[in-house]
Amino acid sequence: MKGVSKKQLLEENRALKAALEKERAENALLRQKVDLLIRKVFGSSSEKLDPAQLEKFLQQGENSPGKAPASSALEEAESQRSRHRPAPKEKHLPDNLPVVEEVIDPEEVKAAPEQWRCIGREVSEQLDYEPARFLRRRLVRRKYVSRQNPLEAPVIAELPPMLQERSIPAAGLLAQIIVSKYVDHLPLYRQEQIYWTRHQVWLPRQSQARWVGMVADWFQPIYHAIRSGVMAGGYVQVDETPVRYLAPGNGKTKTGYFWTTSRPGGDAVYRWETSRAAACLDKVLPVDFKGTVQCDGYTAYPSFARRKKHIQLAACWAHARRKFYEAREQDPGIANWLLRQIGHLYRIERELRESKTVATLRAVARAHQSRPIYWRLHRLLTQLKTRRRYLPRSRMGLAIEYTLNLWSLLGVYLDDGRIEIDQNLVENAIRPTALGKKNWLFIGEAEAGERSAILYTIVECCRRRGLDPYAYLRHVLTRLPSATNWQIKDLTPEAWAHSIPSLSLAQAA
Fold first, then answer.
1. Given 331, 371, 440, 488, which is the most exposed site by the fewest CB atoms within 10 A?
2. pTM > 0.90: yes or no
């Protein structure tokens, strides 16, 4: 080309090469994001790896990641489904169910029963169901007058204590509404339709909402008693989940948060806040709380801990493991090696849990078995970051950066046998709210969030202890109107579970 020097051509060539490399890098990052999205939508939610596939990757070696067998995310998802398809369960009818016998005789015997003698029988069973039913509970208080002194005023029994004077719903109906909304995730408008179309009983959702608020108010003392028990141990797990709520006057919804606090082996407590700021933790945790708070990598937690001298943060290995699991496609050899080392840490924890090892011995076992694996992982992650093997914005680069930033917090559990390796227990407590959000979409106004936090706490504590929430709610709602402040501690799910060790839940109701 005339008028263009060789130097200009070389500079233009270098610029084009740099732009091409940049486009290739961005294209690779976009492919990783697309593959990750496909796996999340179509793949298995489990992070377990196939041991055979893992060994195959490890045999490739660190220097030959390109030779790893390639498979699309959809093909991997299909193979995961086929491997983890549940086996058919055996048919089994519980022995504690009531039995209704129906005797069927031949027509010949019915016509002349005196001519036949029974010599045996054959029994076949089916599992049947009778729909729930409404009933009118009528309290009849008879008046009496003395025979000796008929002129004296008649006597009549007092009404039993009630949640609200002249209240229509009894304890059983209130328990059913709460269980349907907070356990079965049925919005109040759906319950209104069900009760009308199936039972011809009209219960407007506005009335149900008032009753739900009334129940939440009655359960506040029990809620605070549960919260005190959770915070008393000096070690809690904390997580938060977004929930949409109505903003009056705007005609739109805003985002609030359920902050969930859990004590491993104990109860869980929800608290409603309209923000996710670090200042919310001042309300989630008591002012005098001292101990360890296990959390994820959200920046609000270290910001909160810097203002508190007596709080130690601990990180979650499940979050770190998930980052590397999502980065497997970028470098299967390295990712699967890292996942295998983390799997060894979890294997040690599983063995300690199965043997019911006490906290002191757990710390000793971790120091002997887990700590070498911990530092082995640190050496490799540090080398990978120092050598800049991966782009900082790539899935593997982000996973390495996330893990190293939390490295000291990931090692806290090694020194304290009380601390769990992850915070999966508190995440399990959040799952019911995630299921509910798909059905009721938002919780109403901000005040409704506080009521929901109380009732979610109650039903989650029942779930953790294997209690029938309906039986518990009905029992407690019957006792609360006449209970004193000193009796509140006896009405928590924990106390109620200990009070009926030899009774079935059906009898306890």
1. 371
2. no
